[in-house]
């Protein structure tokens, strides 16, 4: 078995793009393709994401044939737990990759790349200067606050206030100070434990729904913030803990989108106002509310999120027939 990949990172968050070795994916909607890969090809995800070729926090992208009219390409996202519905850092990387690889016609100063994700069509705008792709921003699907100003009793932490918002995936949003945490002072491990505790509790007790499809209605993770959500020009920090306690090194594109939706719904950011979001690794995304929208019964927004992606390398992976550990394992 041979698999080829291109490795990139956006704000420190890895993206392993599959370039060869996967069998053909049957025709169908993007969610049907996601289900097929999950049910029939999950051993390949483990080979690429898990050790010894990957690690607990690895992230990947599999390009598939688009189904939506107007889409230039379609993508399935993968991680340590399975397959997500949206990934902003991956969109930023794939925008640059699509221009560099000639998947779309290159235009200066901006090339548009229409990317079909499981959540819907995402429009990436790639800056191109002297033939080289640079910064990328994207407008995702309608994002909305699903439930605002909620509280729950969390063992060891007392009463925790949170929001649940959708930015292509559902996230719980909570101020880290409620857990006794502070950016720059507290351990990453403590952020992970707090976010995971909230995620696990809400998955068990807080039902979700999405107006487009039931497959979108699951809590992807928790984003702990510095609480700086009100009208301000200052940088706001957050950490996203998603899937199986995976830590995003970037500010999280879909998470920034969800935060913007929650902030706008609560009157904390205006249309056209740009905020800067900083990750636990110190990387930054820009984020702004472009316009209002609707998502079924929910008042929603269209957000624009921007960042930079870089190449790390190109690899060819093999799996020998008698190498059981080579099929993928995780130690944590």
What would the keywords be for this entry?
globular; alpha+beta; 5 helices; 332 residues; Diaminopimelate Epimerase, Chain A, domain 1; 2 domains; 17-stranded mixed sheet
CATH secondary-structure class of the largest domain: Alpha Beta
Helix amount? 10-25%
CATH topology of the largest domain: Diaminopimelate Epimerase, Chain A, domain 1
Report the average pLDDT across residues: 97
The structure class reads alpha+beta
Largest sheet: 17 strands, mixed
Please name the CATH architecture of the largest domain: Roll
Low-confidence runs: none
Q: In what range is the share of β-strand residues? A: 35-45%
Any idea what the CATH superfamily of the largest domain is called? Diaminopimelate Epimerase, Chain A, domain 1
Overall body shape: globular
Q: Based on DSSP secondary structure assignment, what is the total number of beta strands?
A: 17
- How far is the first residue's CA from the last residue's CA? 26 Å
- The helix tally amounts to 5
């Amino acid at each position: 078995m041979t698999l080829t990949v291109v490795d990139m990172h956006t704000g420190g968050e890895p993206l392993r793009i599959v370039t060869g070795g996967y069998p053909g994916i049957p025709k169908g909607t993007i969610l049907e393709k996601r289900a097929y890969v999950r049910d029939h090809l999950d051993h390949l995800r483990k080979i690429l994401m898990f050790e010894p070729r990957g690690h607990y926090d690895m992230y990947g992208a599999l390009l598939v044939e688009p189904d939506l009219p107007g889409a230039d390409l379609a993508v399935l996202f993968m991680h340590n737990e399975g397959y997500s519905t949206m990934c902003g850092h991956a969109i930023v990387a794939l925008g640059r990759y699509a221009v560099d690889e000639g998947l779309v016609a290159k235009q200066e100063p901006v090339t548009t790349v229409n990317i079909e994700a499981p959540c819907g069509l995402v429009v990436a705008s790639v800056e191109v200067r002297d033939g080289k792709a640079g910064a990328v921003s994207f407008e995702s699907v309608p994002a909305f606050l699903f439930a605002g100003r909620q509280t729950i009793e969390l063992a060891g932490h007392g009463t925790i206030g949170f929001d649940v918002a959708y930015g292509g995936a559902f996230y719980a949003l909570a101020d880290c100070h409620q857990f006794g945490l502070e950016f720059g002072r507290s351990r990453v491990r403590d952020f992970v434990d707090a976010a995971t505790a909230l995620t696990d509790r809400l998955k068990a007790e807080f039902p979700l729904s999405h107006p487009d499809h039931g497959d979108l209605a699951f809590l992807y993770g928790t984003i702990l913030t510095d609480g700086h959500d009100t009208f301000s020009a200052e940088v706001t920090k957050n950490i996203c803990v998603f899937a199986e306690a995976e830590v995003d090194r970037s500010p999280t594109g879909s998470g920034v989108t969800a935060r913007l939706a929650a902030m706008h719904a609560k009157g904390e950011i205006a249309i056209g106002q740009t905020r800067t979001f900083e990750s636990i690794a110190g990387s930054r995304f820009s984020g702004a509310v472009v316009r209002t929208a609707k998502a079924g019964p929910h008042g929603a927004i269209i957000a624009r999120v921007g960042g930079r992606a870089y190449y790390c390398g190109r690899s060819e992976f093999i799996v020998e027939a008698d190498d059981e550990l080579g099929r993928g394992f995780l130690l944590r």
